[in-house]
Specification:
alpha+beta; 5-stranded antiparallel β-sheet; two-stranded antiparallel ribbon; 8 helices
Length: 233
């Protein structure tokens, strides 16, 4: 940290000037870095009004450059910025094999639909998806229940990301409210995040990150591998 660079901005090489010669231009990869720094650098509250002008001055850019950098980030970056946190999806693991489950059916249901239901098999499978919050790797374990063409997941409760999931569910789902006292509090979650050198989160940030996680735990590559396992049964 120096007087000329009090926020430790990354040194980046401009590619030239814009058409009106009012700002530097940068490679798309470097514009992504500028966009990330705009949101991820921790700034003391009393310095917030000074930060953005300092960022623009350091790189000699204008507001239009910042707007374009955000568009480039959304288009090609392999991560998402949720408030002041960068979240990225990592790889997955299928832990063990498919376990066939027995399903209890209504023996009095002799309809055509009831008979067809009895021919549908159900399986469970332990899975893990890795996520990165501000480049810190955090595993997310869940059990996958497969029934016919549908599936559901049941998240474990060991890692801080898994505890964040149950914290969110316990606040919003009535059937879990009675058990929500067993979930970690926001204070406890932030203590665990701090131990990983991840900055604290408010309720909105936790909610948004868990929404991102739920949308990302199963992708096309994982579905392809699951279909191969099912076809082999």
């Amino acid at each position: 940290m120096t007087d000329n660079n009090p926020y430790n901005f990354l040194p980046l090489q401009p590619t030239g000037r814009n058409e009106t010669d009012t700002a530097n231009t940068y490679h798309p990869e470097d514009m992504i870095k500028i966009h990330e720094q705009q949101f991820l650098i921790q700034v003391p509250e009393e310095k917030l009004t000074e930060f953005l002008p300092a960022l623009k001055a350091f790189y000699d850019i204008d507001n239009n450059t910042l707007d374009v950098s955000a568009i480039i980030f959304d288009a090609i970056a392999d991560a998402a910025i949720i408030y002041n946190h960068k979240v990225k999806v990592g790889g997955y693991q299928l832990l063990g094999g498919l376990v066939e489950e027995s399903i209890e059916y209504d023996e009095d249901n002799n309809s055509e639909e009831g008979v067809e239901d009895k021919d549908i098999k159900a399986y469970t499978l332990e899975c893990q998806r890795t996520f990165f919050i501000n480049d810190v790797e955090i595993p997310y374990h869940f059990n996958l229940f497969i029934y016919g063409d549908g599936y559901s997941t049941l998240t474990k409760k060991d890692t801080v990301l898994e505890k964040m999931y149950w914290f969110v569910r316990g606040r919003f789902e009535e059937d879990l409210l009675d058990a929500s006292e067993d979930n970690d509090t926001l204070e406890s979650i932030n203590e665990q995040l701090a131990s990983l050198d991840i900055r604290t989160m408010d309720l909105t940030t936790v909610d948004e990150i868990i929404s991102y996680v739920e949308d990302s735990i199963i992708d096309d590559a994982m579905i392809d591998e699951l279909n191969k396992l099912l076809d082999a049964k």
